């Protein structure tokens, strides 16, 4: 027999009886009771966290993580829990319309707040550099604008959805014969998935930014917690979509409620759990002293460099100095553990020590002449770089930190007395020093670095040098070729960026002077490329009649170790300063220098300098380690 849609036949098919009505009821479903109990607990926990943050709103933990955004996020999470009630009970047009709209807008506000927190973490670190343009973005206006802008887009999507095809109550009489499912039809499927998709985009962007910012060092950097919270959020909603599409009736609603509760809890626990723990259980960490210092400073150690020199003299104005005297630094390890426990500075060079003496002589002359700096005494803090970038960094940090143990980014010294820095000899050690001092806005004067990269005024606004840069050096090298009438030369350069730039300058200068280049050989500076390159270079040199070769780029001694060394015996090598002064070339291959030419910059010492040097005696300076070795 045929029955209306809201009825179905009895077992004997003699009459029509009403179908059972199904929806997620407040009272008749155990699953609803579980959801209500759980969401009330979650609402209470969120309210408790909000109260804790309000009571401790002036503490560093709350203030460092933008308390206004934290309050907005907590309120949106609380309201997100409460919007679950719109999914329970008998669906009507009003609840169908409000449930998805309220859920979409509240979750967008929450995710926008998380995204804004992530952006502000990145801006805060950008703004720590002196004279940074990012500082103007620090404040209340930018976070408010970002949250409002992101949320406004979702509001526009929701309004468009409601205008075109809003959700409505629907009776599903065909999915099951024996019951009618009262449910909400989403109206426009495109509108529904646009709301979810926009939230997914915000969460993904927040995850990506937080992932890259997670390693930024700071006391209360929450980027790593945001990363994990967005990972939980995205995972829940990605898993929800297939489950949502494969279920029917009240279980479809249950799946969405479950996703709302779990994702909200993910935001709550991942972002606020550690902060509440610090506020309630570890109040000693809730201070302006960086947490990273309290937790890990005891594990932070810059290795000691033995046989290191230190020259310290106090004064009204202090000059920091990093001078290369020892030209090699080696480390030793604990047997069987391969743990580096210390560094050893070795092989001091007499002419390097002489430059250190020149500096001390200049300070002595200034202090003894009352007309140069009347009523002012110059002091200094001088350390060795040992021709190693790591030791150069340690030395400059030691000067910035003051006496005692070296503590990066911390100073016990009055920086108003620190006038600037002198050093270093080579570009290899000068460059990392310049990068550190540009952050602190200190003046640096190098007496030997020639790298053209240091001319970048945007990166190194306070860097100066007393020698010509590489660009001018190769200009002089070209003039030297013309002076001797060498019009047929070869070029060997390192196969890195430095070699490519310097060789291009050299080719340009030589071309202007009508000097022909027989070949340009690029040799690798690592074990993976140098063997193949050297074989090709050897073949080229053996066939060539060139008697003059110009070397440029980054120093590497692979060519001197190979069979090419034999070919250099009858060739005049032109060496730039960074090659001619390199300790490996001086010690291992001195015969190379016998038939080579190099440009260097020397200044004539003051006639009183010899008397000053003669006063350097072990009895007068018993603590001078270098005097014993180099004197």
UniProtKB/TrEMBL annotation:
Annotated compartments: Cell membrane
Membrane topology note: Multi-pass membrane protein
Transmembrane segments: 31-56, 68-89, 101-125, 145-164, 195-213, 225-245, 257-280
GO CC annotations, alphabetized: plasma membrane
InterPro entries (UniProt xref): ANF_lig-bd_rcpt (IPR001828), GPCR_3 (IPR000337), GPCR_3_9-Cys_sf (IPR038550), GPCR_3_C (IPR017978), GPCR_3_Ca_sens_rcpt-rel (IPR000068), GPCR_3_CS (IPR017979), GPCR_3_vmron_rcpt_2 (IPR004073), Peripla_BP_I (IPR028082)
Gene Ontology molecular function terms on file: G protein-coupled receptor activity
Residues covered by the G-protein coupled receptors family 3 profile domain: 31-287
Protein name: G-protein coupled receptors family 3 profile domain-containing protein
């Amino acid at each position: 027999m045929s029955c209306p849609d809201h009825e179905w036949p009895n077992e004997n098919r003699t009459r029509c009886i009403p179908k059972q009505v199904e929806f997620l009821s407040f009272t008749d479903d155990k699953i609803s009771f579980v959801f209500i109990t759980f969401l009330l607990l979650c609402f209470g926990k969120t309210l408790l966290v909000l109260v804790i943050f309000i009571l401790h709103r002036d503490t560093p933990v709350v203030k460092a993580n933008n308390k206004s955004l934290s309050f907005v996020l907590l309120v949106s999470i609380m309201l997100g829990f409460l919007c679950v009630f719109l999914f329970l009970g008998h669906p009507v047009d009003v609840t169908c319309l409000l449930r998805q709209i309220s859920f979409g807008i509240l979750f967008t506000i929450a995710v926008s707040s998380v995204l804004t927190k992530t952006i502000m973490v990145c801006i805060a670190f950008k703004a720590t550099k002196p004279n940074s343009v990012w500082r103007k973005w620090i404040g209340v206006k930018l976070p408010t604008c970002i949250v409002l802008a992101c949320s406004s887009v979702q509001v526009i999507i929701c309004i468009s959805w409601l205008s075109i095809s809003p959700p409505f109550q629907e009776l599903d009489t065909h999915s099951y014969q024996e019951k009618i499912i009262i449910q909400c039809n989403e109206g426009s499927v495109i509108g529904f998935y646009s709301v979810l998709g926009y939230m997914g985009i915000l969460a993904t962007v927040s995850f990506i930014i937080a992932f890259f910012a997670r390693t930024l060092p700071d006391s209360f950097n929450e980027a790593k917690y945001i990363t994990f919270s967005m990972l939980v959020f995205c995972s829940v909603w990605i898993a929800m979509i297939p489950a949502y599409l494969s279920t029917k009736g009240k279980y479809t609603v249950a799946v969405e409620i479950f996703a709302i509760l779990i994702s909200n809890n993910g935001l709550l626990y991942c972002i606020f759990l550690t902060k509440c723990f610090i506020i309630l259980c570890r109040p000693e960490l809730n201070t302006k002293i960086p947490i990273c210092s309290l937790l890990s400073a005891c594990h932070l150690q810059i290795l000691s460099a033995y046989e290191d020199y230190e020259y310290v003299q106090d004064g009204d104005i202090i000059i920091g100095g990093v001078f290369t005297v020892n030209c090699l630094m080696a480390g030793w390890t604990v047997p069987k553990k391969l743990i580096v426990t210390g560094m050893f500075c070795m092989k001091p060079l007499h002419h390097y020590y002489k430059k250190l003496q020149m500096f001390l002589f200049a300070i002595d002359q200034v202090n003894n002449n009352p007309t140069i700096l009347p009523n002012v005494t110059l002091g200094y803090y001088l350390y060795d770089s040992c021709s190693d970038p790591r030791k150069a960094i340690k030395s400059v940090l030691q000067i910035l930190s003051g006496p005692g143990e070296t503590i990066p980014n911390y100073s016990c010294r009055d920086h108003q007395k620190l006038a600037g820095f002198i050093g270093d000899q080579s570009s290899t050690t000068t460059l990392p020093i310049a990068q550190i001092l540009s952050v602190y806005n200190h003046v640096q004067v190098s007496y030997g670095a020639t790298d053209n990269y240091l001319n970048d005024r945007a990166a190194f606004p306070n860097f100066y040098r007393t020698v010509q840069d590489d660009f001018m050096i190769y200009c002089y090298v070209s003039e030297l070729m013309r002076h001797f009438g060498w019009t047929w030369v070869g070029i060997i350069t390192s196969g890195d960026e430095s070699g490519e730039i310097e060789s291009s300058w050299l080719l340009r200068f030589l071309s202007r002077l009508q000097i022909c280049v027989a070949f340009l050989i690029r040799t690798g500076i690592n074990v993976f490329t140098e063997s193949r390159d050297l074989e090709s270079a050897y073949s080229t040199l053996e066939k060539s009649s060139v008697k003059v070769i110009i070397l440029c780029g980054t120093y590497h001694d692979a060519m001197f170790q190979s069979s090419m060394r034999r070919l250099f015996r009858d060739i005049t090598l032109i060496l730039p300063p960074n090659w001619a002064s390199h300790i490996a070339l001086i010690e291992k291959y001195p015969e190379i220098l016998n038939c080579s030419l190099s440009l260097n910059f020397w200044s004539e010492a003051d006639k009183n300098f010899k008397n000053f040097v003669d006063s350097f005696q072990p009895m007068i300076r018993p603590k001078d380690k270098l005097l014993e070795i180099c004197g």
